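Thread: Newbie trying to understand structure tokens

Hi all, I'm a second-year student working on a class project, and my supervisor (Dr. K.) asked me to get a predicted structure for one chain before our next meeting. I've only ever worked with sequences, so writing a 3D structure as a token string is new to me. If someone could post the tokens and maybe explain what I'm looking at, I'd be very grateful. Here's the chain:
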Amino acid sequence: MDEAIKGLIVLGSIGFIFSVVLSFLSERFKVEENPLVEKILKILPQINCGACGFSGCEEFARRVVEEKKLYTCIPGGEEVNKKIAQILGLKAEKIEAKKAVIRCGAKKEEKKISFYYQGPSSCMAANILGGNIDCLYGCLGFGDCIEACPQKAIFFDGTRVKVDIKKCIGCGKCIEVCPRNLISLVPYKEEVWFVACNNKDKGIKTKKVCKSGCIGCGICARLKESPFFIKDNLSFIDYSKVDNKEILFEAKNKCPVGCIVRDD
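---
Reply by user tm_fold:
Sure, no problem. This is what the structure looks like when written as tokens:
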């Protein structure tokens, strides 16, 4: 018999024996999965975003069952988390929906650029190299956050990077990759409100690098029962004090640079 054929027969036999042994061992040492894990897994969003702190939905399901503890599935929202609580016989906790916002609302033409950037098309790299815009706090616009978003909720509209809050699941993946800490999660109830600026310089310096940057004038903060406050020359919203939306609209209308934003 040809030596090559003999070799093939030997290799085939060894492969067959190994497959039989592996099949036996896998059956012998198989770990029985708790049926509750599969039950919970079926109601999870299956996007493996990692916002819960685990590697994916499967690990999340296994951990809540093993530990009999409610971890929050952020993209699943209150409905999914209630179902998980019912399966485990635990009391569901109220979950506040949150959405990502980019605290830089300046359009491309509103940002001052006094030099030409030559380097990798990455926000992280550009930030290390000094940036591609004069503002040291503004959005660099290369889209690291766009790539990181598991729901494709962040996009470039031709003038600036924006978030589609209808698609956003509040996982926070975008926050991790923004080198200028521009992205925050804010409370969502049919709409989101935020100050679209991150420049902490004084107003006169901010105006030199951006036409729509917050100048820290304090008009919004001086309104009666205002949820706005000024810190480091920059306006912020205290979301625990947002009871009256009329104040938000009034502040938006009175902002001289138009950096108070409402998205729905």
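A couple of things are worth pointing out once you decode it. The mean pLDDT is 88. The domain at 35-88 is CATH 1.10.15 (3-methyladenine DNA Glycosylase II; Chain A, domain 3). Feel free to ask follow-ups in this thread.
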